[in-house]
Design brief:
The chain is mostly helical. 79% of the residues lie in helices and 0% in strands. The protein contains six helices and no strands. α3 crosses α5.
């Protein structure tokens, strides 16, 4: 666990995020919490991380996301030397999407 960010305020933030149940709740919460540029920056870094994890090249990432090469390099360092947070999130998203797809297929039968 990263001791640089671990404190009661961050715990409270993460509890609030984990309490959200729907995409609409997330939109409402983050619209109140973040400025539009902050939210765009956070989501851009997440997309950059996903593309880097898929072995996409910088020029494609710049073209598709508008991210600077400095941002791409920073995200890449996090992927290599970080806490594996991006990988955990991508794995959880994939599992949730597979479960949703399976549920949809079961409902269709």
């Amino acid at each position: 666990m990263n001791s640089k960010i671990h404190n009661e305020h961050t715990d409270f933030l993460f509890k609030a995020i984990l309490s959200l149940k729907t995409m609409d709740e997330c939109y409402c919460f983050f619209e109140d919490l973040c400025t539009v540029p902050e939210l765009k920056s956070i989501s851009q870094r997440l997309v950059v991380a996903k593309m880097l994890s898929e072995k996409r090249v910088y020029s494609d990432i710049v073209k598709q996301t508008g991210a600077s090469t400095a941002t791409i390099s920073r995200v890449n360092r996090s992927l290599i030397y970080g806490s594996d947070g991006y990988a955990m999130a991508f794995k959880n998203i994939e599992k949730a999407e597979m479960a949703q797809q399976s549920k949809s297929e079961d409902e269709g039968n």
